[in-house]
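Lay summary. Proteins are chains of building blocks that fold into shapes, and those shapes determine what they do. In this project we predict the shape from the chain. Here is one chain we studied, written as its sequence of building blocks.
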Amino acid sequence: MIFDAASDAVVEPPSTQTARKHSERSDQIVKPSPFVSILIAAVVCGCGPKAPYDLAPVSGVVTLDGEPLAGGVVSFQPRADGDVAPGPGSTGRCDKSGQFTLQTIKGEPGAVVGAHHVRIYSHSSDQPVASDDDRAGAPRERVPARYNYQSDLTADVPAAGIEQLQYDLKTEASGDES
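And here is the predicted shape, written in a compact code that computers can read:
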């Protein structure tokens, strides 16, 4: 406060008046309408547009010559229908009993509903196959090419999903392969 001798009054300096006006404005909190609050909550929660594909759970077991394919990888790649992109592929790693559960490359559980090309490998990308010179000790693909690189395997994933899909692979070709 400052005493103004000309008017015999006590006045506030301009800086105090400005600070008081800002303080009065900050006391007035703007509250959004309920509609805006719900809209913000929906966006933050991820309740946005649905993915352009449907997923269904897929799990199963892989054996090679009657033994579980421990550490193997099952890959489902959805087949395109015309010019429409079908969605992401899915993979699953086999545990020691040969069991796998698929998830998309985006980490979503399951596989895209529809037709798929299926490939099965005895190794994963962190264990590459032997090099061209076939050095001793390098991991080798144990699953025949007819199940992976040259695979004709297919699967149709229904909307309800597939539990306990069974792939009984053979190293020797026979007429009763899955």
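What the prediction tells us: Residues 58 and 98 are 14 Å apart (CA to CA).
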